[in-house]
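MOLECULE: protein
FOLLOWS: sequence and fold
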Amino acid sequence: MAILFNDITERKRADQALSESHARLKKVLEVETVGVMFWDLTTGALMDANSTFLNLMGYSRREVEARELTWQKLTPPEYLEVSRAELRKFAVTGRVGPYEKEYLHKDGTRQWFVFAGSSLGDNTCVEFCVDISDRKKARRRCKRAKIDSAR
């Protein structure tokens, strides 16, 4: 009777490294101030998003899983051409942004974001966004104050 042993040390190391990599990636995707979205650029559908984005926009994970959200639905009409220009840029470079535009919150209000992203292959894109609504409001107040003081 022969006994055969296989050394699985390397496989165990690789499994451990992969597990650690997944844990780091999960922490990156759940940064509380950065929304992360995964888009199917063929259909325009939002395929996945982190909790930060969902909380900022008022949408649920179920709505994402049902593919109910598209960049077209989230984008106010006056910003559609900005988005189309970024898609043309994406087709050439594999990157979008950085660019600013408003998105429509589930309750109908608008929020300003700065966006940037890149290709994941197969006509999919990861896009990151940061809420800049407060900065935009402060800028409007400053403009109004300048106009008022000039009168």
